[in-house]
Specification:
Shape: elongated
Number of strands: 4
Helix content: 25-40%
Largest sheet: 4 strands, antiparallel
Number of helices: 3
Structural class: alpha+beta
Low-confidence stretches: none
Strand order of the largest sheet: 1-2-3-4
Strand content: 15-25%
Length: about 180
């Protein structure tokens, strides 16, 4: 009788250890998947931003207000953004394409794909795109300027997720320094 109790106890302990290992493995896989998806979203948004002009007026690269105009803000999404500083303080949840269509629903042409081909909206509904654009020191581009301008701007893209009961978690962060080169007369 005692041998049976000991055998059952050992079996339960072994099963518990095995289940804990499987749970940890699944959690690690889920985190790796989220980081990979977020990295792709961050790269896509950074490519969109860096494909724009440095500034609205090519002869004045030292704008003191890094923001979009009222006309640019009036678009359905970011389709009217035409220079890098227009992206400053973008906060979009859920993440969208330039036309304002949620990722996973867009067809890449400014429209919405067929319902059967759309991603599950609950997958990224808690995710957010965040962009900051700011001037950095010419001597040390990793140092943000608290006032004034320089020939260099930092573009910072973050992809975060609101996790119920745990707050906001950052899955990806990209930073690129861009510089102003005046046009040749």
């Amino acid at each position: 009788m005692i041998e049976a109790v000991i055998a059952v106890g050992l079996t339960v302990m072994a099963a518990g250890t095995l289940l804990m290992a499987v749970s940890t493995s699944q959690q690690t896989t889920d985190e790796a998947l989220r980081q990979t998806i977020a990295a792709g979203m961050a790269e896509q948004l950074m490519d969109e931003i860096l494909g724009q002009k440095y500034c609205a007026d090519p002869y004045n690269g030292y704008e003191t207000s890094l923001s979009r105009s009222s006309w640019e803000s009036a678009g359905a999404g970011r389709e009217r953004y035409n220079d890098i500083d227009d992206y400053n303080l973008v906060r979009t949840q859920p993440p969208t394409d330039p036309n304002g269509i949620a990722l996973g629903r867009d067809d890449g042409l400014g429209g919405v794909r067929a319902a059967a081909l759309q991603a599950n909206t609950s997958l990224i509904s808690r995710w957010r795109q965040e962009v900051d654009v700011y001037y950095v020191s010419e001597a040390n581009p990793s140092q943000r300027l608290t006032s004034g301008t320089s020939d260099y701007r930092m573009v910072e893209v973050r992809i975060t997720e609101e996790i119920p009961g745990a707050g906001r978690r950052q899955w990806a962060k990209l930073q690129r320094v861009v510089s102003y080169v005046p046009p040749v007369p």
